Amino acid sequence: MARTNLRSVSIARHQDKPALSKGQKAFNSLIRQIEKRRKQLHAWETVTPAFRQRYVDELVPLERVSATLQVRMVRCLDQAYAKNELTRAERRKMAIVIANLAGDLINEDVDEGEELKAIYDKYSPTNYDSQMAAEVDGMKSMLEAVLGVDLGDDLDLGSPEDLLQRAQAHIQQSQAEWAAKNAEREAQRAKRKKSPKQQAAETRAQEQQAQISLSIREVYRKLASTLHPDRETDPQERDRKTRLMQRVNEAYQKNNLLQLLELQLELEHIDQHALNSMSEERLKHYNTILKEQVRELDQEIVHVESAFRYAYGIDPFEPVFPDTVLRNLAVDLKEIRLNIRTLEQDLLHSKTSGT
């Protein structure tokens, strides 16, 4: 993760040239985009441990308590159903409530799963295992149609996880086959004689990439020549330069131009005037590098958010933000505590009333 407390890099207006050029504006815009994404990643780094702590210490125990109480409620309703005081309409409504509650608890993988399954089958017009098998079979048909593959007839129709793993394996195999075919096509295309226009475009792309690499290497060399710890005789200063050189090497290995420029500013190897005076050609190369950094940061944010959703069972399409997840968790905690109190009161009332 890049440091967020370094001196800010930007091109400023000055009296001789009050209006920024297109390249300078693009440079400043890209720097702001990178800083915004850095802050977002830093926010995720900060909030995730706090969220995990509250989730494990508070929400998970409450969910266990809630599940235990709900199982007791299913048993209580099952017993109440057997009594003759209920009307036919009340029995229909209670049967629906019992089946829905038991089915939800089975899906939560509680210890009383087999007992709940028997209760579900008692009050539902369909058998639980048969219903799950039909749902998995429907998912299988849909995935086969979408993926254009045969997922086989040896699937465990009681296990959606087995189906999803099989589909994922087919997707990975298809991707590998596509990559192999694409590589073969590219190799064949490379063997064919290129037209003068294609050769010119390829040469320009190679030259641009060489200039981009040179731009980063120039900044790196200036920092490395000054910070090289082996040239320092003072032990404390050698340690300081060693730490700085580690940051420089890390930034260079990642092609992180912004971090290298920030280090230059921090060490006063460049000043604001040098930034303001960068040539348009240099800016062009720098902007290309910074655009790639924005793209990489976007990918990192997507990965962090996807991992967070997966870890805590959040819907894949539900937006998550580091500044709201703790607030949302607090709402969930308040709601589950309220539900627990309601369940406890209902169970107590059922016990005292004998229903």
TrEMBL record:
Query: So which domain of life are we looking at?
Result: Bacteria
Q: What is this protein called?
A: Heat shock protein DnaJ domain protein
What residue spans carry the region label Disordered? Answer: 181-208
Q: Where is the sequence biased in composition, kind Low complexity?
A: 198-208
Tell me the InterPro entries matching this sequence: DnaJ_domain, J_dom_sf
Q: Which UniProt keywords apply?
A: Coiled coil, Stress response
Q: Has keyword Flavoprotein?
A: no
Keyword Coiled coil in record: yes
Coiled-coil portions: 287-346
- Alphabetized SUPFAM superfamilies for the sequence: Chaperone J-domain
Q: Which organism is it from?
A: Paraburkholderia piptadeniae
